[in-house]
Write a structure and sequence with these properties.
- The complex is a heterodimer of chains A (583) and B (375).
- Helix content of chain A is 32%, strand content 24%.
- Chain A is built from 16 helices and 28 strands.
- In chain A, strand 7, helix 7 and strand 8 (212-215) form a beta-alpha-beta unit.
- Chain A is elongated.
- Chain B has 375 residues and is an alpha/beta fold.
- In chain B, 42% of the residues lie in helices and 9% in strands.
- Chain B has 16 helices and ten strands.
- Classes of the chains: A alpha/beta (583), B alpha/beta (375).
- Chains A and B meet through strand 18, strand 19 and strand 20 of A and helix 2 of B.
Chain lengths: 583, 375
């Protein structure tokens, strides 16, 4: 039986958001005459309850089988209208939206051409609607366990939260110890609390938790599956044995590495023993060696932004923590060596966090001298060092003698990050850190459903921010775990096995590892649970064997053709003339 | 009035990227003794609005174009190139120092800034059997102006010829046909003359089908490598060729040069082009040489003050020549020989040795001369 489309078209005024520049009545009349359209109506707010009732009523009364709403962006209200038509028994994928607000009324003046464009967009949406197919949304059950990669403070906190909520957690850590980078710090800012006081109890709780399994000296070597059901292979480096781990959600908390100060050779790190990094300083401070024995330094210079905010090194970003780390260390030097001159060379002091500015005040008031300018080089002067800089507030080149120079080294993405990114198909931002799904609205999600980010693997952070993100990632990871089932996108790719040659070019461009060669039939197969429907494979396929449900070539072509031919001729001509005059 | 459109200038030179950190000025070897302050120049240009007056900005001529500022800048701003462009704006208005004028005119007329006649350009060869490019040769030896005319630097050119002939390098020279590379012309702000020189040289090279060349001077090396537009030439500094010969044991050294040597990195070889290792490889390969390093070596090397046209003019405040500090640093290492690989460095350092009256303790030599002595 041939399918006969019965399309209803609904044009929204959006108050006056659309109707101020688009002649809504004209668009409605135009839509009513399009092929396959049974009814066309306009209304003040299509998304309102009466607006939705209008659509639902027509579906029931007129037996509509496809619906087009011309209003705002589908990001705004597609879910609303899909839910509405599903209520009266129509498949939610039998719905198409024409964006005549963001893409038309908001950006064009009140002229005929604007109405014409709205007509074109509607005509295009109707052409697609006639070819839409119902699709089935599927549900899969979830493995009620999480995998956390990285045993630093982010991984510890995320693992603990998920375990406390009642799920079992596997925590994988490369090294033989928990605590990560934070374990090598002496005190925190701005409270000056010893790090061990906050880290040790956390480690203890994780290590003794009945629902947390610790895999130390281990790393993830393979990942397959999808949100709700990941299968992960974890190899122990000592035994070289591989353990399979099942997880419904994964938190990546692989941390950062410290900038290697030797990459700025003019600062003499590794050449002059008196030049140390902020991390070296922590060790000295923790072991009480600062000015404890031997000659006490009478001039200590701190240098900010070493390896950060530096395009030359490819590290354009600010490492965020160094300003306060330096402030804390400078204050400590003032306390331990009250006779010493303490100078901090800075470009900008970024004291943005809670209590940071007040702490910075207290550091300056303790007698630490802040000089604006970033030192260019350090040279030897007898037994001492000479820090060469410009004091930019004086506008003078200066040379400051020093017995100890502390370089505030920044954070870098870990070398191994590329391996993790490869395994999980994670995107990385230009700075090399893992990329979140949305900088504001999805800060702990990745482009891969079920994989979440916590801590400095996503970008430089201090301890408080890291813990906050870890707890957010844990909460996000628990959404699929608690629901017990996950919905999978129905608009996925599918392969025409008649056309597929099994060349695998689609698999190379797939960011979600959703394509694989069928071992027997020699054609590519799409894993519909992994597929996110992005369409990259369809573009890459040299034989046109791949289509994406809900975005097929047929549907696209119909949309394009509608844009090209379905113009009311006199109106088109008139608009074209106007445009020419304007140009 | 020497007014320039500062807003456009700032945009063209990406000065808006500057965060005023002062690394350029902090590392500038001149900033401690003259009025030159690269950061401040950038800042003044930025805040000047639409017009910046270059009148009285004599410190622009202090810059030796050593490129320390650019190599330190975290935002990839190039204060040195901005200064060269500001010089160009001054030169364009005809405000040129008389000495500079003579050098520029001489380059235009005679193909060298030293006011020497063109027909004398190959006199340095003397009785050495050197091929001409017209005889056919694999590589061009681009000798350069100072090595062609300056009696002291001529010895370096002769040493290179002896070394490379022993090493079996097939090279030829252009003799009287060779003209200045234009490096200093460009850095003195004569952009127009530089363009003309570059065009003529490229024609000449094309005529001989030259694909590979090496130079005596890091300044010529740098100009051919970076300043000539898309020439497709494979350019090396002679120390790179020498290091390769030494490593492949192509040169048979018959004698030992048993001296403690310290090496001064020329700016146009090191900071500008990252050639730090090859000169050291060459030196270590010479039998008997004991190489010691000064504190300021490689990326931290202290400019001798010979670049950027400074061979032809003093800046605003001559003070103690940087070369004198440099000689003192060399003496501190206990070295007997201060080696370098640049004609300008050779001349300025040698003058400093004389000025400090330490000729009995320290000798300035080019690497080629040291190697040739061990043949």
């Amino acid at each position: 039986m041939t399918f006969i489309p019965k399309i209803g078209v609904y044009i929204c005024h959006c108050g006056i958001n659309i109707s101020a520049t688009v002649d809504v009545r004209a668009v409605t009349e135009f839509a009513a005459r399009l092929p396959g359209v049974m009814v066309a109506r306009d209304y003040t707010y299509m998304c309102s309850d009466p607006g939705q009732a209008l659509i639902k009523n027509d579906i029931q009364e007129l037996g509509l089988n496809r619906v087009v709403v011309a209003s705002c962006s589908p990001r705004m209200h597609e879910p609303t209208f899909r839910a509405a038509i599903a209520e009266v028994g129509l498949n939610p994928y039998c719905f198409e939206m024409a964006n005549i607000r963001e893409q038309c009324s908001w950006v064009h003046p009140n002229e005929t051409a604007t109405t014409l464009k709205a007509m074109q967009l509607v005509s295009s949406a109707v052409a697609k609607a006639a070819r839409l197919e119902p699709l089935q949304v599927r549900q899969v059950s979830v493995t009620p366990a999480a995998l956390v990669i990285g045993g630093g403070i982010a991984g510890l906190q995320a693992a603990l939260d998920i375990a406390e909520a009642g799920f079992s957690v596997t925590l994988v850590e490369r090294s033989s110890q928990l605590g990560g980078m934070v374990a090598s710090l002496h005190r925190t800012f701005p409270s000056l609390q010893p790090v061990s006081e906050l880290l040790n109890p956390l480690i203890e709780r994780v290590a003794n938790h009945p629902r947390i399994r610790l895999l130390l000296e281990s790393e993830v070597v393979d990942v397959s599956g999808f949100v709700g059901n990941f299968q992960v292979q974890v190899r122990n480096r000592q035994s070289e044995k591989t353990l399979p781990v099942g997880a419904g959600a994964i938190v990546v908390a692989t941390g950062f590495e410290v900038f290697d100060a030797r990459r700025r050779p003019e600062l003499g790190y590794g050449v002059y023993p008196q030049v140390i990094t902020t991390l070296d300083f922590e060790r000295l401070a923790a072991s009480g060696q600062l000015g404890g024995n031997g000659a006490q330094p009478s001039s200590v210079v701190f240098i900010q932004c070493v390896g950060s905010r530096d395009r030359n090194l490819g590290n354009s970003y600010c490492s965020r923590t160094c300003c306060m780390v330096t402030a804390r260390q400078a204050k400590l030097v003032r306390e331990i060596l009250p006779q010493a001159q303490v100078t901090v060379f800075y470009m900008d002091v970024r004291a943005y966090g809670k209590g940071f500015e007040e702490f910075y005040d207290s550091v300056r008031e303790s007698g630490v001298l802040y000089r604006r300018g970033n030192p260019s080089e350090i040279i030897r002067q007898g037994d001492r060092l000479l820090v060469r800089a410009e004091d930019t507030l004086l506008g003078e080149a200066v040379q400051v003698e020093a017995d100890l120079v502390v370089l505030a080294v920044g954070m870098m993405p870990r070398q191994e990050a590329s391996a993790i990114a490869g395994l999980f198909k994670l995107s990385r931002s230009a700075d090399g850190f893992f990329l979140e799904a949305h900088p504001k609205l999805r800060p702990v999600d990745t482009a891969i459903a079920g994989v979440y980010l916590a801590g400095c693997c996503q970008g430089p952070k201090d301890i408080a921010e890291t813990v906050a993100q870890a707890r957010a990632a844990a909460a996000a990871a628990m959404i699929p775990l608690m629901r017990g089932q996950v919905q999978v996108e129905a608009a996925t790719a599918f392969v025409d096995e008649e056309l597929c040659a099994g060349c695998g070019q689609c698999a190379q461009v797939c960011a979600f590892a959703a394509l694989a060669l069928h071992p027997v039939r020699g054609v590519m197969r799409v894993n519909p649970v992994l597929c996110q429907g992005c369409g990259a494979c369809a573009v890459a396929c040299p034989s046109g064997a791949i289509n994406v449900h809900h975005f097929t070539f047929d549907q696209f072509m119909a949309q394009l053709e509608a844009l090209a031919v379905d113009l009311p001729a006199p109106l088109a001509l008139q608009a074209a003339e106007e445009l020419t005059v304007e140009a | 009035m020497l007014q320039i459109d500062s807003r456009q200038f700032a945009q063209e030179h990406d000065l808006y990227a500057c965060i005023q950190c002062g690394k350029c000025t902090g590392g500038c070897p001149l900033a401690l003794k003259t009025r030159l302050n690269p950061r401040m120049i950038i800042y003044r240009l930025l805040v000047a609005g639409n017009g910046f007056n270059l009148e009285g900005r004599d410190e622009l001529w202090d810059c030796t174009t050593c490129s320390t500022c650019y190599s330190r800048c975290p935002k990839q701003v190039n204060p040195m190139e901005a200064i060269i462009a500001l010089r160009s704006a001054i030169v364009e208005k005809g405000r040129v120092h008389p000495n500079v004028k003579t050098a520029l005119e001489s380059t235009f007329r005679h193909g060298n800034p030293l006011t020497m006649p063109r027909e004398d350009r190959a006199k340095w060869v003397g009785d050495l059997p050197v091929k001409l490019m017209s005889d056919g040769a694999e590589m061009l030896y681009f000798v350069g102006c100072s090595p062609s005319y300056d009696p002291r630097v001529q010895q370096v050119a002769r040493a290179i010829v002896r070394l490379f002939q022993q090493g079996g390098v097939d090279f030829g020279i252009l003799a009287e046909e060779e003209s200045c590379c234009g490096s200093e012309v460009r850095r003195l702000g004569e952009a127009g003359l530089f363009e003309m020189i570059a065009e003529e040289n490229q024609e000449l090279f094309k005529g001989y089908g030259i694909a590979r060349m090496f130079t005596t001077s890091p300044h010529c090396f740098n100009a051919f490598k970076h300043d000539y537009p898309g020439n497709g030439l494979q350019v090396q500094h002679y120390t790179q060729v020498l290091a390769d010969l030494v490593e492949r044991r192509q040169i048979e050294f018959g004698r030992k040069f048993e001296k403690t040597v310290t090496y001064h990195d020329p700016c146009y070889l090191g900071k500008h082009n990252g050639v730090f290792d090859e000169p050291r490889v060459a030196l270590r390969g010479i039998p008997g040489v004991k190489l010691v390093e000064m504190d300021r070596s490689r990326q931290k090397s202290l400019c001798c003050e010979g670049g950027g046209g400074r061979m032809w003019l003093e800046g605003t405040n001559p003070g103690t020549r940087l070369a004198q500090w440099r000689v003192q640093e060399a003496l501190d290492t206990g070295a007997e020989i201060l080696a370098t690989a640049c004609p300008f460095c050779l001349l300025t350092l040698e003058e400093a040795v004389k000025h400090l009256n330490v000729e009995d303790r320290l000798r300035v030599m080019d690497i080629a001369e040291i190697a040739a002595q061990a043949l």
